[in-house]
Amino acid sequence: VSPEKTLSELGERALIALIDSVVGEPGVTLGIGDDTAALPTPGEGDLLATTDSLVQDVHFNLAEGSGRRVGEKALAVNLSDIAAMGGTPRWALVSLIAPPETPVAFVRELYLGLVSMARRFGVAIVGGNVSASPATLAVDVTLLGSAPSGQLVTRSGARLGDIIVVTGTLGRAAAERVLAVQGHEPGGTVSVPEPRISVGRSLAAAGLAHAMIDISDGLATDIHHLVEASSAGAVIYAADVPIDIAARKVGRQTSQNPLNFALFGGEDYELLFTMSEAQLPRAIEAAGDIPLAVIGTIVAPEYGVVLQDSGGVRTPLEAGGWEHFRRG
Amino acid sequence: VSPEKTLSELGERALIALIDSVVGEPGVTLGIGDDTAALPTPGEGDLLATTDSLVQDVHFNLAEGSGRRVGEKALAVNLSDIAAMGGTPRWALVSLIAPPETPVAFVRELYLGLVSMARRFGVAIVGGNVSASPATLAVDVTLLGSAPSGQLVTRSGARLGDIIVVTGTLGRAAAERVLAVQGHEPGGTVSVPEPRISVGRSLAAAGLAHAMIDISDGLATDIHHLVEASSAGAVIYAADVPIDIAARKVGRQTSQNPLNFALFGGEDYELLFTMSEAQLPRAIEAAGDIPLAVIGTIVAPEYGVVLQDSGGVRTPLEAGGWEHFRRG
Known about the structure:
The structure is a homodimer of 328-residue chains.
Chain A: H1 7-10, H2 12-23, E1 37-40, E2 46-55, H3 67-84, E3 88-98, H4 104-120, E4 124-132, E5 138-147, E6 163-167, H5 172-181, H6 197-205, E7 211-214, H7 219-229, E8 233-237, H8 245-254, H9 258-264, E9 271-275, H10 280-287, E10 292-299, E11 305-308, E12 314-316
Parallel strand pairs in A: 3-4, 8-11
Antiparallel strand pairs in A: 1-2, 2-5, 3-5, 6-9, 6-10, 7-9, 8-10, 11-12
């Protein structure tokens, strides 16, 4: 590595690869590859641990009224990681760095948002830290959870012939960002996802999900994460991707294909999982009120990840979505 | 709270009180009051969890060669929190936020520092996160540890008549900061503490320490934290405070009383604990190579915290040290 090279020149994927190579073999059930670490505790299943940050002027701004949603979202994105493992969230630690000129009211709202999301999901906020920051406010949440022995779902269990299933609808967060960028509601960029804890838990407890991930970076990127961890390939059927109604509307308004919001937009925080087709009725039952959509099939790794249109034409589906550390 | 009020007007103590009031009763063994949370896990003692951040231009700068020490220190300050509970460190999660223009070499050195400190103390780095940041680099470490049943040491167990004991020497970090401010070695502001894991573990296992805390904010502030949690008071004997040799030297060079570095400087990360005087020989044995100094006595709460000079004159010892969120 040239000493003058910067993170923007390196890019996010290469940065993560660099960190992985420095950190090396963690010697635990799951390491840095999955978003959530699973740590063996004698006698009672796995301890789960995950961490995620929201950063001012990257993920939110200090617009009036955004504090509560920043707090809710800071916990929700971590809850989503626990959901994707089939785990139960338990304890959170909250680390805040904030400039001296930060309004007290914003910080108060942020913690109210954290607490309200924590209560909804039975999480106790058990610790934290505050530190001054010269110019950037950021909140980093570490969430601990648990999973009974043998019920952990990872990214790496997809099997040839599995169907690929997604909860809910995709593309809403991307559509909201498009609207926000157009200046209609600048404070509206903080969309709070609904963590799929209950669905994830039910699928894991019933042993239905072979592999699972939450869609944070966008369907296109996260299906790559899943099949790469599983040494598999995937066909995604374009016509079956459940595009959110808000994404369809914004697509019409802006003359964009709403499928692109669903494939590449990210921040949906729905669950993406693979399972045996024969078990689909049981999964629908396990999901309760949350709709499931079958959007594809797990195939051999040499196929890579392809998008198949309604005419049967297949094109490669590239990972793409949010690339951090790029200016502009 | 007036909506226009800022964190700098509020101050750090009031901010923490505000957060405590919003977060409320955590319902776990120890909450936000102690630096480390203790979480009950069925059958095998307590799970410990603590989090601490280092922030660019508050705790360090990007001076050449500082990356490794930033990484070492980011883990070391968390190790010190686990040490103060008598715990064994196990797993760490590392969250990095960094501007696009950050040199890759700095980040690589930072993780090398984290890994080298982790290996020394048997810690596995099991997860983490990276995010872009507009202007500030910060690293937030969450450290998980464990303590056998009944061996947890908190801040709140000090008893009337206990002696007050401190490991090592105090004032070195403050003296190094004074030198750095004078411009002799600007990169030298990142002093890496030596976490007292082994001493903390031995004192806890032998049941010797009644109350314990690590000295992060300065002896004067941290003895207040301890006695307030214990509903007690303290007399500190000025002549018995173990002033570091570097602090004495810088005191002479700058015509400052080196005792002030030891009392108010902070960042020493030595252990401050209370115990029965009769057990002192056992504690000295448990501490091995690490020197112990008896610096005071636990008294009734109405005495508050006082400093007694060699002539027997007592003056109130105010909490003071690093107050965040104040523009300097």
